[in-house]
Amino acid sequence: MAIQEGRWDCSTCGTKGILGRYRECDNCGAPRPEGVRFYLPENASEVMNAEQLAIAKAGADWICEYCGASNRAKEENCVECGAPKSKVTQAVKEYSSSNVPRSAATPVMSSGPSTIPTSIARSRTSQSKGKGKGYRWWLGMVAIAASGIVGITLFFTLPMTVEATVSGLSWERKVTIERLTTLTESDWSVPAGGRLLSQQQEIRSYEKVIDRYETKTRQVSEKVKVGTETYTCGKRDLGNGFFEDKKCTRNVYQTKTRTETYEDPVYREEPVYDTKYTYQIDRWVRDRVEVASGGTKQPYWPEFALGANEREARRSQTYQVFFAGQKGKSYTLKLDPGLWNTFDPGESHTLKINRMGGVKLAENH
Fold it and tell me: What is 285-325 written as a DSSP string?
């Protein structure tokens, strides 16, 4: 595994980028303290020197409990005061590839997401602001489009007032007559009042049933594990000023295609039979409509006589007022009988007309 030399910053005098192998600040001589933060610059080269490799692989440095000096793992006594080796050591930490500390100033957790650099945060903030502007522009376009739709809607629905003169009246009254008639019908059941004439088996529906199977082939693709591979997935802080590659293992897959044989069902439509009945039944059916109409204010119902097996089914009536406007314009207004009866030819009235052809009275009636 590749080994690279890290850096550390002196907390006593502020000197930065001290080589990881140095256990004392090369500016003020202060010992490298317990818990010092080692970091690995982006451009750190791989260590090839045998002596430095031996230091890196020996293990984490230990801290003297008496004078605070930093000592190599292989040293049994403190190089500064001669005190015996203590159990206090620099921490060994592991980092993912995206979480390797690149400076002492940037806090990075050994497990979990790294802090977003200020430059990236500013970039995201500017992007967010840009999106805000785009969003406001989009809202503006929507508002303009909506106002246009509202304007068109109002153009066609808001009425305009016109002065018009009653040019005529009309009314029409209808009476629908039904006759009790014997009908011959057929259905899958005989309704109440039906008199059975005959019955027979007929196809009512079809259902799909499997007729046979056809053997077919198809190409099937699937991922198959073909082995494993080792890759560099991060860095390990060795606690002595050096970092080594952290190795992980992952499965290696290949997409393989094979020919698969399967049975494909072939369906046929099987008729479903049921009993169909033919019967006679008496039903009231529309026979005729008697109509009376006129243009005076004396509407009346048409006169008629009911024959055998006949009945009056329903009555309906329509009342209209015709208006003459300016420039040869004419308008028609349907009204209920009571209101219709208040209009007389020659009277002037104010109407509300929309551009869709709708007509209403402007005054209160």
Answer: EEEEEEEEEESSS---PPP----TTEEEEEEEEEEEEEEE-
Provide the whole-model pTM: 0.47
Distance (Å) of CA 94 to CA 27, 42, 281: 29, 17, 92
Angle at 80 between CA 79 and CA 85, to 5 degrees: 55
DSSP code string of 54-67:
HHHHH---EE-TTT
Tokens encoding 292: 């009376």
Count of CB atoms situated within 10 Å of the CB of 236: 19
- Cα 150 to Cα 154: distance, rounded to the nearest angstrom: 6
* Collapsed DSSP state (helix, strand, coil) of residue 53: helix
Per-residue pLDDT reduced to its tens digit, 57-67: 999 999 999 99
Residue 169 pLDDT: 96
Contacts (Cβ under 8 Å, ≥6 apart) of 72: 23, 55, 58, 61, 240
CA distance 247 to 219: 38
| Residues 283/41, Cβ–Cβ less than 8 Å | no
Going from N- to C-terminal start, the domains of the chain cover 1-111, 116-158, 164-179+286-361, 180-230+248-280
For residue 342, give Cα distances in angstroms to 172, 337, 362: 17, 9, 15
- Separation between Cα atoms, residue 312 and residue 331, nearest integer Å: 34
Query: Under 8 Å CB-to-CB from 142, ≥6 apart: which residues?
Result: none
